Each structure stands twice: as C-alpha cells, then as structure tokens.
Amino acid sequence: MSERISRRKMFGLGAAGVAAAGAGVVAVRAGSGGAVATSASVAATSDAVPFYGEHQAGIVTPAQDRLHFVSFDVTTEKKAELAELLQEWTAAAARMTQGGEAGAFGAVGGIPEAPPDDTGEALGLPASGLTLTVGFGESLFDDRFGLAARRPAALAPLPKFPGDALLPEISGGDICVQACAHDPQVAVHAIRNLARIGFGRVSVRWSQLGFGRTSSTSRAQATPRNLMGFKDGTNNLKLEDAKLLREQLWVAPGDGQDWMAGGSYLVTRKIRMMIETWDRTSLLEQEQIFGRNKGEGAPLGKKAEFDPIDFVAKDAAGEPVVKADAHVRLAHPSSNGGAHLLRRGYNYVDGSDGLGRLDAGLFFMAYQRDPRRQFVPVQLSLARKDSLNEYIKHVSSGLFACPGGVKDAGDYWGRALFS
Ligand SMILES: C=CC1=C(C)c2cc3[nH]c(cc4nc(cc5[nH]c(cc1n2)c(C)c5CCC(=O)O)C(CCC(=O)O)=C4C)c(C)c3C=C
Ligand SMILES: [Fe+2]
Predict the structure, then answer these.
(1) pLDDT tens for each residue of 311-367
(2) Pocket residues for ligand 1 (CB within 6 Å)?
(3) Domain ranges of the chain
(4) What are the pLDDT digits (tens) for 247-268?
(5) Fewer CB within 10 Å, N side or C side of the chain?
(6) Among 121, 111, 127, 109, CA closest to 9
(7) Using CA atoms, how far apart are residues 96 and 107, in angstroms rounded to an integer?
C-alpha cells in the first residue's frame, strides 16, 4: 500500500485554524515529484506565510519570486451566491497558503466517481511562501448586487493618462486575486483552483504571470532588477517603515467606507517595454533616464544605492545631475505632495509579438491608502514628462479595493462588505 500523507503534513507546516477536515485523507506520495528541499535557500522559501491577521498577507510580505495574478468577472447575479463563493475561496486559500490542498478530500482522497476537489499539480510541493490577496474592482459596485452605496470614493475609475494604450480585455474586472509564491507551480495551482471553485459564478477575465519580483518590500531583501537591467525597489515603502505604512499604505477607520479599514488599494499596470530599442541605447542615456547608475543603483553623483538623491546638484555645464525628466525625480515623493507607493511589481515575458520582438515588460503593482492622492498624481507627472516614456507603453490597468485581513476561521474575504 502506498504511503499517504497530506501535502501539509508532509512538510510539517500545519497551522491551527486551517481546516483540518480531510487531513490524512488527502493524498500525496512521500518522495513523489521534485518538491524535496535540496539546499538551505530552498528550505527557507518553502515556509508558509500566516493567512489570518489584521491585514491581508501579500502586501508587506517580503515579495516572493513569482506571481500569478487573475481578474475575474462575476457571472452570477445572486449576491448570496457571490458571498458563498467568497467563503469557499477563503477556506481554500487558508488551506493552500499553509501547504494544504484546496479541498477537504484533495486530488486523490475523494470518491472515484466525483471530480477531485484539488487539481493535483501541487501535490508534494511545500507552501512555498504562497500568499493570496483579494481585491474588489469598481465594476462590482454597480447595481447587480446592491453594493453601489458601499463603493469607496477612492475606488473611482482612474483618469486616462497621456500615452495610455489600454486594452479593455486585459483591464479592470470585478474581483482580483494576487497569488505570490517562490514556486510558480504553487502560485498557478492556487489561482487555478480558485477559478475551478468559482465555476458558474465567476469567469476569468484576464490573468498575468510574473517572475523575478521587481521590488523589495523589506530591508532584509536585496533589491532585484527589472528587464531594463536596473535595480528596482530601492526607494520603496518597506515592511520596516511602520509610521509611513500607517500614513500611506493602510486605510484607516474614518477614511471612507468602514469595510475597507485595515485594507489598501491596489493599482495594476501592465507596462510593455520596447526592450529592443532600449538595448540599443547608450549606458549614459539609460542612467540619465532613471537618474541612477546601472551597476550599484546609486543616485547619479552618489556612490551607494541607498545614498539620498541630490536633486539640486549641477554638473560642470550647470545642468542638473539628475535631469528634470529623470524617472526618479518625477516619481519622488518630493515632486508629488509627499505621496509614497508600496510597489510590488514583477517582470513578464509573454512570448513574442509576431514582429520579431519579445513581448516583455513590467507588471507594475502598487498598494496605497488612496490612489487619488498617490498613484494618480505620480502617474500624471510621469506620463507628461518621464524620459522613460519613449521605451514603454501602458497596455492594461486595474484598480482594486483590497479589504483588511481575514481575522480567523469564522471570517471570510469581504465579510464586512457583504454582511
Ligand atoms: C506611477 C508610478 C510608477 C510607474 C508606473 C513606474 C514605472 C516604472 N518604473 C521603472 C523603474 C524604476 N522605478 C524607480 C523608482 C520609482 N518608480 C516609482 C513609480 C513608478 N514607476 C516610484 C515612486 C519610484 C521611487 C522614486 C523615489 O522615491 O526615488 C527606479 C529606481 C529605483 C527605485 O527606487 O526603485 C527604477 C529603476 C520602470 C522600468 C517602469 C515601467 C516600465
Ligand atoms: Fe518606477
């Protein structure tokens, strides 16, 4: 008889509060698949991130390496069915983030006559730092579910920015789920199972895979690089910036709709890079465009990555060392009324475009307390003047209200909104 243990049990990651039903019935063969940790770094990235808490995981959680982001359209017209789905999703998310299977019986533990309640491709894989973060789009607050009066003012449609080339079919959506993990198979498994559970009630509108996190969200992390080869995330809001997080990231009671307290607003922008043109641009020009050097990521005129940027310094010709149209000057809080963002983007390559070019870029994601005072002014200033614009094109956009955290096993995603 083959040895049968749960995915969660196999890695000793059981967490109180994660549904125990079916544990021990759920099957994975020990030693099957390539999930066995082979080095210290793999072991570290196999850990589970707590699911319950004041805030949703996946926002200040140190950014994992991989992303699968999905936006759903709600297809049911019944509010009760939607609330029920959110409860089912929350239970599945609580299990999967702790390394368990999506359902109580799992991929092979149920009756043979029924479809399994887990699709199976993560059997044998550890939790891999999986976080699942949910958000509600503006379109959910139309008259379908009687939620119009509960739409936060901050969830207003974003304005059209100069240069926008947005494709509606990969923009917007009623509900988003951001899955981040250190293993792409774990992130994809989670989104796929949520889509499966949602059959008949939601349908996938668009989804995006990402790799090589392009932002650090903790000082414990080294700054990664984007596909233009520059360190990205140096001057990001970070987990350790407690005061700034309170002021700039988390929605506070009294900010508007109470159901959003402890939550945050997520802006997504898929930004295609004209990397072939970029690769024919001189190093000097590349560095002037960002206002930082490519090797260290130091501000121009400075030596080390975290040296403060000097926006006043002039070169021998009397020109600003950091140009007037440099990306970091235009995006800096000092140019935007003190606005900060918590950036959490990922690189993407979606094959090629049929014209001999890679379809590649940045899936930009940024969390904030109020996009009207944060993303909108920053993006307006970038869209008008940024010298980077010659090399990029915004092709998709999303804005989602991500509520506060799920408190315990009796709570669910969006309970405060739906009750
Ligand atoms: C509206 C917000 C922003 C968009 C859109 C955006 C696109 C974008 N950015 C890079 C690369 C870098 N950005 C850097 C800094 C930076 N970018 C934003 C905002 C947006 N970027 C901010 C708020 C900041 C921080 C500015 C500061 O306070 O100094 C950097 C420098 C390193 C860093 O601090 O992270 C790089 C590099 C690309 C490639 C891109 C679109 C494709
Ligand atoms: Fe940027």
Answers:
(1) 999 999 999 999 999 999 999 999 999 999 999 999 999 999 999 999 999 999 999
(2) 226, 228, 230-236, 269, 271, 273, 290, 292, 309, 327-328, 331-333, 341, 361-362, 364, 375, 378-379, 382, 392
(3) 50-95+130-419
(4) 999 999 999 999 999 999 999 9
(5) N
(6) 127
(7) 13
